[in-house]
């Protein structure tokens, strides 16, 4: 039995509704399975798993009947197809992983299933998470559910990108075809699509969520994290995703707080840093206005805005686009056609490598593998990679210095609203510039959240970002929830499963 | 006169300069970065975890016991232990290297400078510098001979921990290189950090060889890869040095190269030139944090180190009064030293050393077994020495008893009893035998008395024969002299 109103619930509401037995987990799963089918035109999912969703929901209902509910029992979520899921096709949106069914489950998704969550399917993404538009997927681009701009000129009805790389996750959550989703953020891949799709996206502190079983793009920058409709939902999901994992050497042995309990709504006296360097040249007026509005909202709630300086900001993008491709060029060497995935036979070993990798990797992946190979090569290592690592240290130091004076930082998430599919594909630099505000906290490994805060002149969602101290997601979430309440963002995309009831 | 350690060429003397890179497989139950087992000789691809096969999303986690082994080895080489070291990725494509990179330590190894002292056969000692020791993963094995046009890959070895031990270019001959490798292997075995088994590939060696005129700067070197026996190392160095000398003497120059040793033909041949050398694009592995050691833990390991060959040798000389040569032979293998000490305990150490190095080594050689599989136990040999010392059997009979011990494995007292080999020390019985011998050889006695002193030995022999060798030789001597004098 389908009930579209179930799709309008937040994760917290669904959790409480299930606990009160207002509806069953199977009803919820069925509604979401239908929603997944309904939003097929968005191409948000690569592999829906409706049977698995129903089976998991069935198990939830049995636990609910015994009053043994788990923290996320019955919550239907989408999994970015970068997380390995045991026995379920895992593609990283790349041709080169054709037919790959992992014999293991990633730590984070395993924790989610252990918490009772229900898997709706594997969400589309940029190939190997490389992109800011979800247009590099071998399985085709994802469309932003906010694709019908009322003000759009006649003839300009090109669909919009959902952002990337977690574009499928963002589109699914925004279009009500998942109650929440996992994403990964390397340079902005959770926060920028969250901003483009009008949802909440949280990149936790590096080391908070295990990377074990998540297909690697850039190991020192890859952050698994939650994508949800509300800040509270992000807090709930993050708790289930977090925790020390001895199988990931970079996982932090720190306790997992009850993040939801941090949402007190009280930010009186909280010092909010406003980094002057983020007033980038050419930032659109509406972004600047929204940012200022955010400052006022937080001030009105009792916080104290403080002007700060992050002088190394301008070096963040070039630094990122050296370190990330360098690590990627090495991380992606394992896709060689020898053990799994695609193999194109050749007349020699080298030919097999070349044909397999040429056929298996898309243009953006090839570009980054080439850049990464170049910056690590003999004679260039010191000038590029080593220098980038030093600048990275300085960028981190900027934040450490700033956090001596403030408790968190408010900034825009992205320099623009969602753009049209195809708009920046010919100009990789323009595409890379989209990460200008998200990359610095990525390099520093700091927690940062994007909260939908307003609409652009074109009626598209815009997010604001709150950045916090390492392992202080609680302050980040608390401030974000206050921002969310003040912004009262109630807008819906034009394409929503269940018709938006 | 020809300078020591040089090779004569057509145009004069040449010095060979050698540095060795030894890859020693760490004794460990699990691999360096995965929990997969390391059993040798298992069915192909049965000792492989998804980490070793570099499946997507798999991450390395350092195996603490491998680090402990490396640190122990560093301590055993008297080397600097570096409390912070870094794992790097060495990137290259090959089917038996699943991730497309080897995790190794490039600029910041776990062990720094150390030293190995060589005892050369001519009695001199040579100090060979250790540049560094680092931990790295082994690759898998490519099997090219299983199929006419396919290569098979066995990943059992992929990810197994290796210690790469790099020497300074301090070695000057193939012989020295052989002594160095034996000494290094001995230290590793004493420490229990590598079994040193070259046939199973747990110890492999790359040789960097160059030649120069004595006193001149280093020449251009060639690297000979992956030698798996000390004999091959020595042969390859000999050949390579001669090859380089010939080229230079004929006006050529040495090209820096990586070469392979052709075991069948006893020659080295080029594998790749400097231009074809890989660009390994080393960079710190972002999946691993720097390896930070607790100084107290290192000191605990230092305190727990076993006695190593050099110290043991010095002790054998000072405590047991052995010669340096004998002590050197006995300490070369840990098991031999242990065996010797058990035999020597409470006994004459020189006799113990002579028996171990003489009769026992001879028997083991004939049987083709190591001391760990010796048919004669240390306790058995000790009892035999006791029987000699307390006069139960003579030294001559002891050799027969020992032969019986080797053959049957029985204990010496039982053999002596069963064969009635107990020494005759009854003076009356010996006197009777002497009397009868002298009576029977009256003509010889007369000759003796006429001045043929040499016949004394003949009389001893006759007495011993009459007692089937059981008469106590000291008593026979004393009493025979008296009897002859009294005649």
Structure description:
The complex is a heterodimer of chains A (501) and B (487). Chain A is α/β, with parallel strands linked by helices. Chain A has a single domain (4-148, 156-273, 405-494), classed as Amidase signature (AS) enzymes (Alpha-Beta Complex). In chain A, 36% of the residues lie in helices and 12% in strands. Chain A has helices at residues 11-19, 25-38, 50-65, 107-114, 167-174, 191-197, 231-241, 285-300, 316-331, 349-360, 363-376, 382-402, 428-433, 439-444, 473-487; strands spanning 45-48, 76-80, 118-123, 180-185, 200-203, 223-228, 271-275, 304-308, 408-412, 448-455, 461-468. Chain A has an eleven-stranded mixed β-sheet, sandwiched between helices. The longest helix of chain A has 21 residues, at 382-402. Chain A is globular, with a radius of gyration of 21 Å. With 487 residues, chain B is an alpha+beta fold. Chain B has three domains: 6-301, no CATH class; 307-419, no CATH class; 427-486, Orthogonal Bundle (Arc Repressor Mutant, subunit A). Chain B is 39% helix and 19% strand. Chain B has 15 helices and 16 strands. Chain B has helices at 64-76, 174-191, 230-249, 295-303, 309-320, 324-331, 334-344, 349-367, 378-389, 395-408, 412-419, 427-440, 442-449, 455-466, 473-486, and strands at residues 6-9, 12-25, 84-85, 88-91, 101-104, 114-119, 125-137, 141-143, 152-154, 161-167, 203-212, 222-227, 257-262, 267-273, 283-284, 291-292. Chain B is elongated, with a radius of gyration of 30 Å. Chain B starts with 5 loop residues before the first strand and ends with a helix.
């Amino acid at each position: 039995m389908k009930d579209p109103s179930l799709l309008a619930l937040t994760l917290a509401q669904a959790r409480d509704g299930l606990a009160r037995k207002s509806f069953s987990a199977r009803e919820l799963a069925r509604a979401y399975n239908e929603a997944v089918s309904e939003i097929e035109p968005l191409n948000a999912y690569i592999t829906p798993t409706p049977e698995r969703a129903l089976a998991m929901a069935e198990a939830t209902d049995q636990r609910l009947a015994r009053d043994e509910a788990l923290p996320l029992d019955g919550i239907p979520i989408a999994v970015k197809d970068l997380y390995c899921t045991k026995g379920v096709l895992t593609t990283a949106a790349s041709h080169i992983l054709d037919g790959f069914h992992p014999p293991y489950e990633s730590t984070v998704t395993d924790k989610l299933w252990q918490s009772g969550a229900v898997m709706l399917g594997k969400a589309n993404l940029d190939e190997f998470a490389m992109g800011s538009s979800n247009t590099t997927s071998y399985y085709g681009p994802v469309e932003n559910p906010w694709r019908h701009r009322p003000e759009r000129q006649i003839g300009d009805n090109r669909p919009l990108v959902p952002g990337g790389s977690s574009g499928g996750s963002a589109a699914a959550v925004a279009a009500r075809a998942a109650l929440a989703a996992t994403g990964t953020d390397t340079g902005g891949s959770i926060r920028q699509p969250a901003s483009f799709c009008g949802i909440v996206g949280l990149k936790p502190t590096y080391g908070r969520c295990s990377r074990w079983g998540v297909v690697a793009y850039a190991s020192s920058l890859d952050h698994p994290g939650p994508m949800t409709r509300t800040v509270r939902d992000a807090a709930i999901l993050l708790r289930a995703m977090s925790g020390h994992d001895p199988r990931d050497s970079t996982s932090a042995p720190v306790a997992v707080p009850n993040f939801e309990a941090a949402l007190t709504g009280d930010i009186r006296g909280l010092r909010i840093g406003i980094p002057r360097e983020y007033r980038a040249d050419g930032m659109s007026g509406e972004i600047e206005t929204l940012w200022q509005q955010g400052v006022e909202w937080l001030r009105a709630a009792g916080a104290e805005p403080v002007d700060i300086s992050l002088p190394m900001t301008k070096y963040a993008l070039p630094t990122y686009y050296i370190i990330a491709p360098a690590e990627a060029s090495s991380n992606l060497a394992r896709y060689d056609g020898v053990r799994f995935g695609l193999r194109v036979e050749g007349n020699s070993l080298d030919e097999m490598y070349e044909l397999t990798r040429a056929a298996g990797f898309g243009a953006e992946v090839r570009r980054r593998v080439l850049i990464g190979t170049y910056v690590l090569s003999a004679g260039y290592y010191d000038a590029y990679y080593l220098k980038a690592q030093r600048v990275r240290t300085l960028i981190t130091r900027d934040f450490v210095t700033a956090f001596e004076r403030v408790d968190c930082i408010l900034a825009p998430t992205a320099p623009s609203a969602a753009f049209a599919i195809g708009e920046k594909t010919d100009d990789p630099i323009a595409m890379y510039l989209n990460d200008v505000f998200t990359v610095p906290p990525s390099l520093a490994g700091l927690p940062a959240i994007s909260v939908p805060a307003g609409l652009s002149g074109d009626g598209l969602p815009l997010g604001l970002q709150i950045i916090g101290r390492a392992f202080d997601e609680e302050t980040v979430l608390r401030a974000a929830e206050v921002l969310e309440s003040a912004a009262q963002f109630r807008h819906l995309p034009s394409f929503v499963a269940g018709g938006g009831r | 006169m020809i300078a020591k350690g040089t090779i004569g060429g057509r145009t004069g003397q040449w010095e060979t300069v050698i540095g060795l890179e030894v890859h020693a497989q760490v004794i460990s139950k699990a691999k360096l970065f995965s929990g997969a087992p390391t059993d040798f000789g298992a069915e192909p691809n049965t000792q492989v975890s998804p980490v070793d096969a570099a499946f997507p999303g798999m991450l390395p986690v350092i195996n603490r016991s491998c680090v402990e082994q490396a640190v122990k080895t560093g301590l055993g080489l008297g080397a600097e232990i570096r409390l912070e070291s870094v794992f790097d990725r060495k990137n290259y494509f090959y089917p038996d290297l699943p991730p497309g990179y080897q995790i190794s330590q490039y600029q910041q190894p776990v062990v720094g400078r150390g030293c190995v002292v060589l005892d050369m056969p001519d009695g001199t000692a040579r100090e060979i510098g250790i540049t560094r020791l680092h931990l790295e993963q082994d690759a898998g094995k490519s099997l090219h001979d299983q199929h006419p046009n396919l290569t098979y890959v066995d990943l059992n070895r992929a990810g197994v921990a290796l210690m790469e031990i790099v020497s300074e270019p301090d070695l000057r001959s193939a012989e020295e290189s052989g002594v160095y490798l034996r000494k290094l292997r001995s230290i590793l075995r004493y420490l229990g950090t590598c079994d040193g088994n070259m046939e199973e590939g747990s110890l492999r060696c790359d040789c960097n060889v160059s030649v120069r005129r004595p006193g001149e700067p280093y020449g251009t070197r060639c690297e000979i890869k992956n030698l798996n026996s000390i004999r091959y190392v020595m042969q390859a160095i000999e050949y390579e040095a001669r090859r380089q000398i010939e080229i230079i003497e004929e006006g050529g120059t040495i090209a820096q190269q990586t070469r392979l040793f052709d075991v069948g033909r006893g020659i080295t041949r080029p594998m790749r030139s400097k231009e074809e050398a890989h660009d390994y694009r080393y960079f710190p592995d972002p999946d691993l944090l720097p390896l930070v050691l607790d100084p107290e833990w290192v000191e605990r390991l230092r305190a727990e180190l076993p006695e190593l060959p050099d110290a043991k040798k010095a002790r054998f000389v000072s405590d047991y009064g052995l010669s340096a040569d004998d002590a050197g032979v006995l300490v070369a293998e840990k098991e031999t030293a242990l065996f010797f000490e058990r035999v020597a305990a409470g006994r004459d150490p020189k006799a113990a050393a002579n028996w171990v190095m003489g009769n026992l080594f001879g028997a083991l050689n004939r049987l083709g077994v190591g001391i760990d599989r010796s048919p004669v136990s240390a306790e058995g040999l000790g009892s035999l020495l006791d029987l000699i010392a307390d006069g139960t059997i003579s030294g001559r009979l002891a050799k027969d008893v020992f032969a019986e011990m080797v053959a049957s494995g029985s204990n010496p007292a039982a053999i002596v009893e069963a064969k009635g080999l107990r020494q005759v020390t009854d003076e009356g019985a010996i006197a009777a035998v002497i009397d009868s011998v002298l009576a029977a050889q009256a003509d010889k006695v007369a000759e003796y008395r006429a001045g043929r002193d040499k016949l004394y030995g003949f009389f001893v022999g006759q007495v011993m024969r009459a007692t089937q060798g059981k008469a106590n030789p000291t008593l026979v001597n004393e009493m025979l002299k008296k009897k002859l004098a009294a005649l």
